[in-house]
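Q: I have 351 residues here and want to know how they pack in 3D. Can you give me a structure?
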Amino acid sequence: MILALVIALLAWNIWLTQRYSTLSQATASSAEGTESAVVVQSTLTDYTTGITSVMDKAREGIVTVVSQSQDSLKTYSGVVFRKEEGVTYVFTVMDALSGMDSVSVMFDSGASIEGEIVGVDEDTGLGLLRVEPIFDVAPLVQGDSSLLGQGEYIVAAGGRRPSTGTAFISFGIVSRPGMRRLTLLTNWFAEIIETDAVACGENYGGPLLDIGGKLMGIVIPRPVNTQDRMGYAISVNEMALVCDELLENGTVAKGSLGVVYRSVADLELYEKNVLGVPLDMVEGVYVTHILQESVAEGRLLAGDIIAAVNGEQVLDVTGMRKALYGCEKGFLAKLDIIRGGEPLELEITLE
């Protein structure tokens, strides 16, 4: 009886091993030749997970930002975002830079370097630092946040805490990518990512990573009128626009319409059917909300499709944001829109 049981268990173990091998080979074969494919085992060993692999890839690009003034010493996180001719640029939150006498960047190795403030953007709450390390620094690999969807796994990370030498790591899913104002002092709707991963003081300024280890955003304090149990991040696509403006001008020039919009290409067929959008239309942005007392109130309507700005065709949300980042406040923007299926031209002074 015992011998029969042992033989049955051995047979079962052999079958499971063969089955696992077959599934692994099939998964690898399906991913072969697809550059964007990421295969992640939920558990690699008894002690490590796929999140361990994500952090191993990204760790060198995550820093700690130590800000000091006469009255306080504060610790935030930062993201190694760009490197040009020996100069490294680090993104963090504006709170880490405002009113501070000195700011230093501590890399994962423990090396600390004095940072020079390039500039800040009050609308997004981001600040950019310039450092010149004498050692090699690898910026985080940037993803495309426009491809991030609801339910995708993400990791919110922070730099090593000086008091413990360990990093802050939190795991969760994307609740909703979208657009929100960060404060009541701005009419700019930033492109943000809402997640159930933990966001707190020490990882503000840290990266939001996808399961492949690519940068998808930067963790920020909770915007106004948002869920108090959720975490938030500015998208990496918006970070790139802010970075370009700060490096070129030291400030961020952009004009706001005070509206929320979605890419027409992202609308589901049933949404298009209900909203009256032609099913074959894939270009432009669909206006979903207009802020009260904004420059667009009474001019644009929910349901309008913005097809071009200043004569430049708008394909999607990314194209729309690039167009607005190219304009100063007070600029007279010429919009080509489609309202009720009919083309219409509007001129609106951006704020």
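Q: Anything worth noting?
A: The helical segments are 2-31, 50-58, 236-249, 269-275, 317-325. The longest helix spans residues 2-31.
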